[in-house]
């Protein structure tokens, strides 16, 4: 199954980007995790509500990829570790050129920010640093990169635009295609601005507005405020929350998640990724289980650490936030899970007598049509017709959304 879109993780040195990635490396997890493809790319697992719960067949749901537990499904999604973020990246500082070249492949970004304020702009140890500055200069680097490339050629772009009588969308898409843009992205950018003047009359101020709007449209960003358990984090969180759209912010502690998963694997605690609950042997015995769930007994050091994590992270914030980071990225992209099946009545994907359902799931972007899904899954194969749930034929121009046209069967032929 196709695994795009691609989510890029960015962050200055020592912000905790590597820890955030490592906190998801449990590929056997039923909830989260990612499997390494190469040093920069990996497969994460996004939590979604599976269609099997909607149709009361959860006990027969067996995904080919990921897993499904009682209707809560983990779906593969590709992640990109975008390295080399330092101020001046657009001028080639650090790994600037490579950083920006990698960045252009991403459909959305997760910006891991050290909200403790204990690392400066270049990732060196300090105290009292304002992490809101990191959010501002990441954006300014991307905007400066795109604007610089555009202005270097603006004279010739303008002359060609007039000569061929192109539309603004056509001209800009010719320039922005290198960032992984599409004509629809450019069109949405210009629609939101509602510009009156023709492209050949754009001022520098108008070009700035276009580049900023395009950046927002092409690189929607989740702000992952990491190290929330540090004593200095609260004041920085409060400041950033006033400056940023709260719907783009996730509070997290990657180190806490790594520790909890490690203790779970070693049999000391019972913990489900993404939740606020941790049970120790003593907890389960107190709840009436004389065997303590078969868990090992904790030493005093680890017992104290778990209690501190409960108080400082889980009970205060509701989770470590790591699983929620991917969920937020999917939310801002408006991703829709679609379930291709062979039989839209039984939801089987294999042989006609198979009792296993919803083997596959793909993630498509908001506003995708049934035809878009067909091309993503079937490629250039000729499609005779498409069926939705219950065997009803579906028109190719119909939109897909959760609960509507999200269970599809493609009949090949002419």
UniProtKB/TrEMBL annotation:
<dbReference type="InterPro" id="IPR006073">
    <property type="entry name" value="GTP-bd"/>
</dbReference>
<keyword id="KW-0547">Nucleotide-binding</keyword>
<dbReference type="Pfam" id="PF01926">
    <property type="entry name" value="MMR_HSR1"/>
</dbReference>
<feature type="domain" description="OBG-type G">
    <location>
        <begin position="5"/>
        <end position="272"/>
    </location>
</feature>
<dbReference type="Pfam" id="PF08438">
    <property type="entry name" value="YGR210-like_G4"/>
</dbReference>
<dbReference type="GO" id="GO:0005737">
    <property type="term" value="C:cytoplasm"/>
</dbReference>
<keyword id="KW-0342">GTP-binding</keyword>
<dbReference type="InterPro" id="IPR027417">
    <property type="entry name" value="P-loop_NTPase"/>
</dbReference>
<protein>
    <submittedName>
        <fullName>Ribosome-binding ATPase YchF</fullName>
    </submittedName>
</protein>
<dbReference type="InterPro" id="IPR013646">
    <property type="entry name" value="YGR210-like_G4"/>
</dbReference>
<dbReference type="GO" id="GO:0005525">
    <property type="term" value="F:GTP binding"/>
</dbReference>
<dbReference type="InterPro" id="IPR031167">
    <property type="entry name" value="G_OBG"/>
</dbReference>
<dbReference type="InterPro" id="IPR012675">
    <property type="entry name" value="Beta-grasp_dom_sf"/>
</dbReference>
<dbReference type="GO" id="GO:0016887">
    <property type="term" value="F:ATP hydrolysis activity"/>
</dbReference>
């Amino acid at each position: 199954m196709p695994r795009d879109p691609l989510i890029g993780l960015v962050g200055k040195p020592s912000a905790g980007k590597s820890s955030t990635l490592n906190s998801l490396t449990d590929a056997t997890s039923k909830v989260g995790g990612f499997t390494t493809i190469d040093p920069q790319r990996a497969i994460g697992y996004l939590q979604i509500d599976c269609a099997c719960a909607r149709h009361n067949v959860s006990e027969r749901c067996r995904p080919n990829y990921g897993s499904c537990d009682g209707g809560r499904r983990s779906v593969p999604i590709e992640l990109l570790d975008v390295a080399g973020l330092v101020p001046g990246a657009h001028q080639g500082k650090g790994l600037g050129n490579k950083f920006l070249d990698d960045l252009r492949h991403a459909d959305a970004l997760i910006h891991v920010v050290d909200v403790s304020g204990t690392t400066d702009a270049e990732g060196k140890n300090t105290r009292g640093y304002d992490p809101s500055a990191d959010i501002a200069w990441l954006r300014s680097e991307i905007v400066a990169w795109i604007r610089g490339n555009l202005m270097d050629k603006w004279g010739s772009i303008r002359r060609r635009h007039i000569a061929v009588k192109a539309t603004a969308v056509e001209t800009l898409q010719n320039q922005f295609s290198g960032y992984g843009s599409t004509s629809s992205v450019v069109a949405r950018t210009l629609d939101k601005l509602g510009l009156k003047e023709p492209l050949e009359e754009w001022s520098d101020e108008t070009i700035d507005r276009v580049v900023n709007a395009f950046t927002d449209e092409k690189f929607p960003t989740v702000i992952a405020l990491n190290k929330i358990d540090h004593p200095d984090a609260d004041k920085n969180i409060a400041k950033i929350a006033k400056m940023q759209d709260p719907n783009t912010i996730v509070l997290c502690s990657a180190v806490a998640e790594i520790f909890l998963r490690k203790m779970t694997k070693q049999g000391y605690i019972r913990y489900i990724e993404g939740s606020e609950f941790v049970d120790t042997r003593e907890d389960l015995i107190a709840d009436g289980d004389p065997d303590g769930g078969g868990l090992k007994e904790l030493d005093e050091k680890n017992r104290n650490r778990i209690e501190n994590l409960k108080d400082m992270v889980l009970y205060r914030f509701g989770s470590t936030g790591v699983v929620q980071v991917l969920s937020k990225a999917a939310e801002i992209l408006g991703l829709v899970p679609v379930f291709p099946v062979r039989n839209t009545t039984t939801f089987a994907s294999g042989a006609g007598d198979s009792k296993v359902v919803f083997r596959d799931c793909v993630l498509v972007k908001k506003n995708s049509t049934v035809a878009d899904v067909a091309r993503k899954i079937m490629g250039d194969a000729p499609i005779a017709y498409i069926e939705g749930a219950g065997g009803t034929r579906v028109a190719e121009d119909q939109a897909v959304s959760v609960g509507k046209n999200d269970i599809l069967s493609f009949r090949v032929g002419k």
